[in-house]
Amino acid sequence: MIVEDEALLALELESEIEAPGHEVTGQAMSSKTAYELIDNRRA
Q1: Apex 13 CA angle, 5 and 4, nearest 5
Q2: What is the percent of the chain with per-residue pLDDT over 70, rounded to a whole number?
Q3: Is the pLDDT of residue 43 over 90?
Q4: Helices vs. strands in the chain: H and E counts, helices first
Q5: 7, CA 20 to 30 Å: which among 15, 28, 33, 40?
Q6: Which pLDDT value is given to residue 2?
Q7: Which residues pair with 27 in a beta bridge?
Q8: For the residues 12-37, what does the mean pLDDT come to?
Q9: Dihedral class, residue 4 (left if φ above 0, else alpha if ψ from -120 to 50, else beta)
């Protein structure tokens, strides 16, 4: 999960994380949104 409020930076971080084979499970612009995404995936 990437939590970043700047879209271009979030995309760059995603590329850097996925390059060595890791998986990004989602992106959120705030911690509140990140927790909501996590809760929705659990349901």
Answers
A1: 15
A2: 100
A3: no
A4: 2, 2
A5: 40
A6: 98
A7: 2
A8: 97
A9: beta
Token pair for 24: 């990004």
Structure tokens at 18: 């996925």
26 φ, ψ to 5°?
Answer: 175, 170
When pLDDT is cut at 50, 70 and 90, the band that residue 12 belongs to is very high
Mean pLDDT of the chain: 96
CA separation for the pair 20, 39 (Å, rounded)? 27
Counted domains in the chain: 1
Pick from 23, 27, 29: which is nearest to 6 by CA?
A: 29
